[in-house]
Amino acid sequence: MTVPDEELFAFVDGELPPEDMARIEAAMATDPQLALRVETQRALRRLLSGAHAGVMREPPPEALSAAIAAKPPLAPRPAEVIAFPGAQVKGKARAKEKARPREPKLPKPPGAAGRGVPAWIGLAACLVTGLVVGRLAAPPPVTLSGGDDPAPIAAGPLAQALNSQNSGQTAGPVRVKLSFKTASGVYCRAFQAAGRSPIAGVACRDPDAWRVRAVSPASPGPAGDYRMAGSETPAAILAAVDAMIAGPPLDAAGEAKARAAGWKPTPGAR
Amino acid sequence: MDSFQTEMLTLLPRLRRMARVLAWEPADADDLTQLTVERALLRRDQWRPGTRLDSWMFRIMRNAWIDEARTRQRHGRVLAPPEAGALAADPRAPSLEARLEASAAERALAALPEDQRVAVALVLIEGLSYQEAADSLEVPIGTLTSRLARGRATLQTALIDQGAQP
Predict the structure, then answer these.
(1) Quick check: A92 pLDDT over 70?
(2) Among the CATH numbers 1.10.10.10, 1.20.5.440, 2.60.120.10, 1.20.1250.20, which is that of B103-166?
(3) What residues contact B4, with CB distance under 8 A and at least 6 apart?
(4) Residue A193: which H helix or E strand, with range?
(5) Res A204 pLDDT > 60
(6) I want to staple A151 with a disulfide (CB 3.0 to 4.6 A). Which of A84, A87, A262, B28 is the partner?
(7) Please, are residues A96 and A184 in contact by the beta-carbon 8 Å criterion?
(8) B79 touching chain A per CB within 8 A
């Protein structure tokens, strides 16, 4: 009996329907060649199941367990982020979008309680139009111009950087960290803006402008210092990117192509 | 802590193991695990209770790794501190110490292309079903099984045909 490799693998992995499992099991009794192939694959499974087993035996580092345990249960502390409603992400991304905050929300950052607008909002307000900073009296200390308004439009140096800068460039007041496409083919870019109170955010390309979808103060965050380069981007922004991204981020060539095409959406192509 | 966090704590050893498959160097792997945990906690409302937390978290880890790899490539920077030198820039060039301590299976696994390596790890090490592994990788099941088959062929040559003992 001839059993193709992939079927044999599926047998060893227990992925065949019961009748096929039984058929191969029975054939092994009379077909030494088949029995040997199965035994080889089982040996491979055994070898691999022990790979990196050392890490399973040691207790995880305190920092990791603490990161899990320290999180308040069920009602996680809201991330310090402004998320803007957006209409341009359609189709498949909609399900993901549900998970993102609908309403602009802006919890008070630690230490800013009742004492006016946190510094990072100032920078955010310089970079986008339509970000309205409200009166300072009662909490919430800052409001946006309204839940139904489209996301604010990137202006000045931010718009310039989003239009023309390569990701990963390390000079300039605004640095683009990453470009990606949403499920509907819209281009988005995560950025950071330097300043006394640096901010990070993510903006997506509308036909006529970049609309800022989320902004958050950039590090130093309370989460501590990872050595990962990407951790300079606040977790809230990474999460916003995660919620929108479809496929891998653009590489340099993909970025150049998108820029040359004026960042026009390219539905379908991934 | 609630049950979500408790379950995540229970998963920690397996998350660290999977991170080793991706990042190889222990410190980098734990950084990746930390990032995965942080993201999972931020996005816990996206996890559907009743579905498997492990494959959901492997997916987050995989995406985090892709992001990190991209950033690293862009910045010419590495997960390890700069003084670790050029070696650490290439995940295929693990430190001497790590190489000496690794088993034959670990070395053979590390030599696989990343897509095959992850497919093999999810099914053969983590014991996920084909469907769960395909979901974790966000690929069709046929793509998963073909990566798995190619990875297996290479591993068989490297391990069995060379006479490694199970």
Answers:
(1) no
(2) 1.10.10.10
(3) A73, B44, B47, B53
(4) strand A187-193
(5) yes
(6) A84
(7) no
(8) yes
HSE at residue A66, side-chain half, CA atoms within 13 A, is: 5
B80 Cβ under 8 Å from any chain A Cβ: yes
Q: Give the 3-state secondary structure of residue A129.
A: strand
Single-letter amino acid code for the residue at A235 = A
Chain B residues inside the 8 Å CB shell of A68: 1, 5, 8-9, 12, 37, 41
Question: CB–CB of A236 and B42 under 8 A?
Answer: yes
Q: Considering chain A, what is the average pLDDT of its residues? A: 73
Give dist(CA A106, CA A84) in Å, integer. 11
Tell me how crowded residue A236 is: count the other CB atoms within 10 A of its CB: 24
Q: Say how far apart CA B34 and CA A63 lie, in whole Å.
A: 8
B1-93 sits in which CATH class? mainly alpha
Predicted pLDDT at A146: 39
| Every domain of chain A and the residues it spans | 5-54, 76-260
Strands A174-181 and A153-154: unpaired
Per DSSP, the three-state class of A199 is strand
Residue A140: cis peptide before it, omega within 30 degrees of 0: yes
Q: How far apart are CA A255 and CA A234, in angstroms?
A: 23
> Range with the lowest mean pLDDT among A136-150, A197-211, B75-89?
A136-150
Does this chain's domain B1-93 share its CATH topology with B103-166?
no
> How close A111 gets to chain B, by Cα (Å)?
22
Give me the residue from A56, A96, A226 closest to B13, CB to CB.
A56
Q: Closest CB to A51: pick one of B46, B67, B125.
A: B125
Quick one: three-class SS letters along B83-146?
A: HHCHHHHCCCCCCHHHHHHCCHHHHHHHCCCHHHHHHHHHHHHCCCCHHHHHHHHCCCHHHHHH
Domain ranges of chain B: 1-93, 103-166
Contacts of A209 (CB under 8 A, 6+ apart): A153, A154, A159
Q: What token pair was written down for B47?
A: 């996890």
